[in-house]
Amino acid sequence: MSELPTITHVSDTIAVGELAPPTSSRSVTDTVNGSHHFVISGYSLAKGMGVGKHIASDTFTVGGHQWAIYFYPDGKNPEDNSAYVSVFIALASEGTDVRALFELTLIDQSGKEKHKVHSHFDRSLESGPYTLKYRGSMGYKRFFRRALLETSEYLKDDCLKINCTVGVVRSTIECSSLHTIQVPDSDMGTHFGMLLENMEASDVIFNVSGEMFHAHKLVLAARSPVFHTEFLCGHEGDAQEIVVNDMEPKVFKAMLHFIYKDALVEEELEATRTSTTPCISDTLTAKLLSAADRYDLTRLRRLCESHLCKDISINSVAQILALADRYHAAELKSVCLSFAAENLSAVMQSDGFEYLKENCPALQSELLKTVAGCEDDSSSGGGKSKSVWAQLSDGGDTNGRRIRQKT
């Protein structure tokens, strides 16, 4: 009898691996906020343009979308018979629906800061934020009764000022990260700064009004087109000592600090900014702006512009404007012109304006163009331009008063 085959049963075992660590996520909904300042000059001339017709601000960007302020001098609603002015914020860019909140502020120009504010940011809205499509708007048909507005302190020198804040709603997902590696801040400036402080391998000495500064030609050439030309293409390539007589040692030292460390000596700038220095041009920041222009240090020029911008006021704007023009600080010059144009009457009565009249006639012409720029887009005959030109040339302010000359 033959043997039967042996059958072996093998049971499969499924191994249970380790459980993956838990992860988490969180949805966060908030707003990206941005503001725009809209000045409406010549309010009385805008009246009568018709119900439903508006004056638009320049577009501005908030949350990746373009926006504009619409001001209706005769109102937007025909049923109100021009009894109210209307103000709206409109979505000026195409794309998907945008959810947003807004705040409109009519500025009190008396200095009492009793502004008229309409805000949806702190208000509980039943339907939530507004949902806008292209050219959709949000605002008030009855923003202010026109008769009251025209006798209020919101209207000054035939001018209205409106601040608008838009908050674009966004939702983001925050995910947990199990492993993170922190990347330290760049220390390149520290290392190059040590090179300057230790004078290691320096190959040029600057004699600045008798004070010696050791430096490195390659570093200077890499940072400044002027030094690049002098050391790598010009006659200074073999020079061991360079004499600089028309710059103060502290200014040259601050410039070298920037070249090596890509930063300003903030403490020294603040010290001169808050001192009793009678003239803006005598501050370290102004002198550094001159050095930046001389050696074509674009970033240093912009940093100086940013610092000087903080000091713009009625009494200082003329001085800063003259500095910006002299040292080719285009951004700072533009800010000064805009500020002076918006505060023309007060600026014209400052001492600095007398300096502009006597020494910078070309800047006066540029200020005129800034003040009357809106006239270039209309065919109104240029009456406003002539009026402003008369004020700039004879010393009268915007109310027709003569400015008392200092003796």
Automatic annotation (TrEMBL):
BTB domain ranges (all copies): 202-268
Pfam family for this entry, one: BTB
Gene Ontology terms: biological process: cellular response to salt stress; protein ubiquitination
Entries under InterPro entries matching the protein: BACK_BPM_SPOP (IPR056423), BPM1-6 (IPR045005), BPM_C (IPR034090), BTB/POZ_dom (IPR000210), MATH/TRAF_dom (IPR002083), SKP1/BTB/POZ_sf (IPR011333), TRAF-like (IPR008974)
Pathway named in the protein's UniProt entry: Protein modification; protein ubiquitination
Residue stretches making up the MATH domain: 33-166
Chain segments carrying region Disordered: 375-407
Family: Belongs to the Tdpoz family.
PANTHER family, alphabetized: BTB/POZ AND MATH DOMAIN-CONTAINING PROTEIN 1 (PTHR26379), BTB_POZ AND MATH DOMAIN-CONTAINING PROTEIN 5-RELATED (PTHR26379:SF229)
Role description: May act as a substrate-specific adapter of an E3 ubiquitin-protein ligase complex (CUL3-RBX1-BTB) which mediates the ubiquitination and subsequent proteasomal degradation of target proteins.
Name of this protein: BTB/POZ and MATH domain-containing protein 4
UniProt organism field: Solanum lycopersicum
